[in-house]
């Protein structure tokens, strides 16, 4: 492509588009049609210059011009309560449902590893000794020890807020860092699994596994499920870098990344519920069966929400991505 000739041939169109965008008054119908046509042609010109004869100055001008034109054509849109409702009843559950082939195996494998670590620690006194001194282990596992008082050592409201903040940060890190081939996600997940496994092993060695499960299950079922969803989604994002499928890598990462961002918001809400249970239900005076029952109900409600509402929305084509008008415009590849 002879860039000078190309610019000379189309400069008048670009100037005309710029003039229409600067109009203070409302455009007539014919002018609006002309603006749309010039926007499409200028976007094509930008694509051709980028691929054939990249010139930073011209590309900068056309990029700005296309962005302004797209804003004028599509208009601005404000979020409404309907957007919130659609996100909670369709977008978020559909995104979680679509990622089930990643987070369900992640949950099963992680649970198995935690149980294996717990068995290993619980049946090997030498491993227990490497974790802490015998006196410290007794202090942690005895009735009224650190494992039990942990959930009631702070006011319920502040403790719930602290737990929610920590878990939401961990989930967000899994979603964001997944793009690095999923490796940071595996490390974050492994740390959580080890912590649970150590608790199982130490309390088992003290003959108090039932007490430990009574403390962790009320909130842990929903909390760990949210962590597994975040980790599985992060791993899927990492795999998208390796194998984007029929889409271009850039398009695939953009689509999956936007869906992951939405999931971060949704999972923060789910973790808020689990944090409230951990702050108010786990340390309460309710019988163990009642506390565990509340945890099971919360977990079943979430799974029903995902598989019923999310499954239905996913089958209707919902992906969890933002609405099409909110996505970045794809540049044409041909004139």
Short description:
The protein is 79% helix and 0% strand. It has 13 helices and no strands.
Q: Could you describe the 3D structure shown?
A:
This protein is mostly helical. The protein contains 13 helices and no strands. The radius of gyration is 27 Å and the shape is elongated. The model is unreliable at 324-335 (pLDDT under 50).
What's the number of extended β-strand segments?
0
Structural class: mainly alpha
Low-confidence stretches: 324-335
Strand content bin:
under 5%
Protein topology:
Layout: H1 3-22, H2 29-52, H3 56-74, H4 81-98, H5 100-122, H6 125-131, H7 134-141, H8 146-149, H9 156-177, H10 183-205, H11 209-242, H12 249-281, H13 288-315
Q: Which key features would you list for this structure?
A:
335 residues; mainly alpha; 13 helices; 79% helix; disordered C terminus
């Amino acid at each position: 492509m002879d860039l000078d000739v190309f610019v000379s041939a189309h400069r008048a169109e670009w100037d005309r588009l710029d003039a229409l965008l600067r109009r203070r008054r409302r455009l007539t119908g014919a002018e609006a049609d002309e603006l749309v046509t010039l926007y499409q042609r200028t976007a094509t010109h930008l694509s051709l210059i980028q691929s054939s004869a990249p010139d930073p100055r011209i590309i900068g001008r056309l990029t700005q011009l296309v962005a302004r034109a797209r804003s004028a054509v599509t208009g601005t849109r404000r979020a409404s309560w309907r957007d919130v409702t659609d996100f909670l009843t369709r977008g978020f559950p559909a995104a979680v449902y679509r990622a089930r082939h990643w987070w369900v195996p992640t949950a099963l494998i992680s649970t198995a590893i935690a149980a294996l670590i717990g068995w290993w620690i619980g049946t090997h006194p030498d491993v227990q000794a490497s974790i802490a001194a015998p006196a410290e282990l007794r202090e942690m596992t005895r009735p009224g020890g650190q494992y039990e008082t942990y959930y009631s050592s702070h006011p319920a409201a502040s403790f719930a807020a602290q737990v929610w903040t920590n878990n939401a940060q961990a989930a967000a890190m899994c979603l964001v860092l997944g793009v690095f081939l999923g490796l940071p996600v595996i490390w974050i997940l492994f740390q959580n699994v080890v912590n649970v496994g150590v608790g199982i092993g130490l309390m088992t060695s003290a003959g108090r596994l039932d007490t430990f499960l009574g403390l962790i299950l009320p909130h842990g079922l929903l909390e760990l499920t949210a962590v597994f969803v975040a980790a599985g989604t992060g791993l899927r994002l990492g795999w998208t870098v390796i194998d984007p499928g029929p889409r271009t890598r850039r398009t695939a990462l953009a689509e999956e990344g936007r869906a992951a961002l939405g999931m971060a918001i949704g999972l923060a809400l789910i973790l808020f519920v689990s944090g409230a249970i951990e702050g108010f239900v786990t340390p309460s005076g309710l019988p163990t069966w009642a506390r565990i029952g509340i945890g099971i109900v919360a977990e079943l409600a979430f799974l029903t929400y995902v598989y019923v509402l999310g499954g239905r929305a996913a089958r209707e084509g919902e992906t969890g991505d933002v609405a099409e008008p909110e996505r970045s415009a794809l540049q044409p590849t041909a004139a």
